[in-house]
Design goal:
Oligomer: homodimer
Shape of chain A: globular
CATH class of chain A: Alpha Beta
CATH architecture of chain A: 3-Layer(aba) Sandwich
Largest sheet of chain A: 9 strands, mixed
Strand content of chain A: 25-35%
Number of domains of chain A: 1
Strand order of the largest sheet of chain A: 3-4-2-1-5-6-7-11-8
Order of helices and strands of chain A: EHEEEHEHEHEEEEHEH
Structural class of chain A: alpha/beta
Number of helices of chain A: 6
Helix content of chain A: 10-25%
Number of strands of chain A: 11
Largest interface: A-B, 71 and 71 residues
Chain lengths: 255, 255
C-alpha cells in the first residue's frame, strides 16, 4: 500500500515549534506536504484573503516531503494546498500544534480550527491539535504518543463526511502524564472582555488592546473544559452547520 | 418606555451603501450606535485583531445617534462597541446589509455573520442581513419592509440565548416583490475552488487570486438556497456550538 498523503498547516506560522513537532510526527506516518502561513495568523478564524494576492515560497522539496509557506491565512493554506500544490486529495489534514487553547468557544476564533474545518468542508478527514501552553518552549513530550495514535486511527478508520476533530492537551506540568483521552462536547463559556488603553506618544490619542478573562459557565463531565481541567486530552468532534434546528419550528410561529 | 438601543455594524466598511441603508432603517426603531470597520473586512469570518492595537474615530455624536469607525474586524467592532462605546448592553445588534450572499456555508467565511454570532455569544439578540447582489447600487427597496418587520419582531419577542438570525435577500430583479419570508436550515454546498494565476511584472513570479464556483448539493425546500432560488427572503436561526453530537458515541467506541 502506498504511503498516506498528509497536509500539515497551522496558524502560529511555519516556524512555530508546534508545527515543527507536528511535521516530525506526521513524517512517521506518511508523505507530508506542509503549507503554512509565513507569519503568525492566530485568531484569524475562518478568514480568507481576498484583498491581496497570494504568493507561496518553496522551503524544501524532496520525494517524500514538501514544505511551502504562503502569505495567507490558515484557511488559505488549505485551499491553496488542495487546489494548487498537492498532487492529489490528501488522506488527512492536520493543523497545529497550536500554542494556546482551542477548547470551548475558542474554536470560533481559531485559525488552527478554521483550517481543520476547511478540510472537513472538503470531505477530507481533519484534526486540529492545540496545547494549553502559550510558551515558545511548550512541552510536547507527552502529547506525541496521543497525536500519533489519533492520527493513525483517523487514517485507518476515516471520519464521517463533514467532521473534524478538535484535540486539546492540558499544559504539561512537571512531566506528569495525562490521564487519557476523553471524547467531549464544546463547553459553554465566554470571554469577559476588556480593552487595555494606552496612549500614542506622537499625538496623545488612545489606542486599545483586546484583553479578557475566559469564564466557563458549567462544570459538566461531558465538556472539554472539564476534561482539560482534570488533565485529560480532550477530543471534540466538530462540524460546520450553524443551523439552530430546535429554533426552526419556534420561528415558524412568528409568521 | 425608553427607546431600544441598537448596535449597527457590517463587514463592507462604514461607507458601504448596505450599512447606510441599515442605519437609516434602525433609526426608525430606536437609538442607534454604529461601530463599523473603517475599511472593507469581507471574508474576515470571526477573526479578531491581536497583532496591532485598535483605534476608533468619532464620526457623528448626537443625543440619539452615535457613529464610530474602528480599524478592526466586524467582531472587533462588536466587542469594542459593547465594552468601550455603548452606555449599556444593547437590545439588538444588526450587521449588514452585506453586499453578497451569506446563505449556506458562506456563513463560515462571513464577517457580517461573525459580528452577529459575536452578539449571540454575548446573549444579545442579533441579526445579520445580506442581499445576493454585489453591486454598489444594489436595490434595497423591497428589503426595507422585511428588515423593519424582522428587527421589530426581535426587539419585541427577543431570541433565545445564543441564537442569531441569518437573513438573506434574493437579488431584486426588475422591482419584482419577494414571495415572503421563509424559515430555513443552512444548505449543504461547497465552493469548487480555483486560483487565477498572474505574473508579477517586476520579477515574473506567479501570484494567485482565490476564485471559485459555488455549488449547491441539494434541492430541498427546507434550505436557504432553495428559498432564495425561489425568490423568498430566507431566515436561518444560527448558533455557535460546533459539537457534532451524533459523533460522540461513535468516537467513544474508538477507545
Amino acid at each position: 500500500m502506498s504511503k498516506p498523503l498528509i497536509l500539515v498547516t497551522n496558524d502560529d506560522g511555519i516556524t512555530a515549534p508546534g508545527i515543527r513537532k507536528l511535521i516530525e510526527l506526521m513524517r512517521k506516518l506518511g508523505k507530508v506536504v506542509v503549507v503554512a502561513p509565513e507569519d503568525p495568523q492566530s485568531a484569524m478564524s475562518h478568514a480568507i484573503t481576498i484583498k491581496c494576492p497570494l504568493v507561496y515560497k518553496e522551503i524544501e522539496i524532496t520525494e517524500d516531503y514538501k514544505e511551502y509557506s504562503l502569505n495567507g491565512t490558515p484557511v488559505d493554506c488549505v485551499k491553496f494546498g488542495l487546489h494548487r500544490l498537492l498532487e492529489r486529495k490528501p488522506d488527512l489534514i492536520v493543523s497545529g500544534i497550536n500554542h494556546g487553547s482551542n477548547a470551548s468557544i475558542n474554536i470560533i476564533y481559531s485559525g488552527t480550527m478554521g483550517a481543520a474545518l476547511e478540510g472537513a468542508m472538503g470531505e477530507i478527514p481533519a484534526i486540529g491539535f492545540s496545547i494549553l501552553d502559550y510558551n515558545h518552549d511548550a512541552d510536547f513530550s507527552r502529547s506525541e504518543e496521543y497525536i500519533l495514535k489519533i492520527a493513525k486511527q483517523v487514517l485507518e478508520q476515516g471520519l464521517d463526511k463533514g467532521i473534524a476533530l478538535n484535540v486539546n492537551f492540558p499544559k504539561l506540568v512537571a512531566d506528569n502524564d495525562y490521564k487519557g483521552l476523553k471524547i467531549c462536547r464544546q463547553s459553554k463559556a465566554y470571554w469577559k472582555e476588556d480593552f487595555a488603553e494606552r496612549n500614542d506618544p506622537r499625538n496623545g490619542k488612545p489606542y486599545f488592546w483586546l484583553t479578557g478573562t475566559f469564564t466557563v459557565n458549567e462544570n459538566d463531565e461531558s465538556t472539554d473544559e472539564w476534561a482539560l481541567e482534570n488533565y485529560y486530552v480532550s477530543i471534540v468532534p466538530v462540524q460546520f452547520d450553524f443551523t439552530a434546528y430546535q429554533q426552526i419550528e419556534k420561528l415558524k410561529n412568528w409568521e
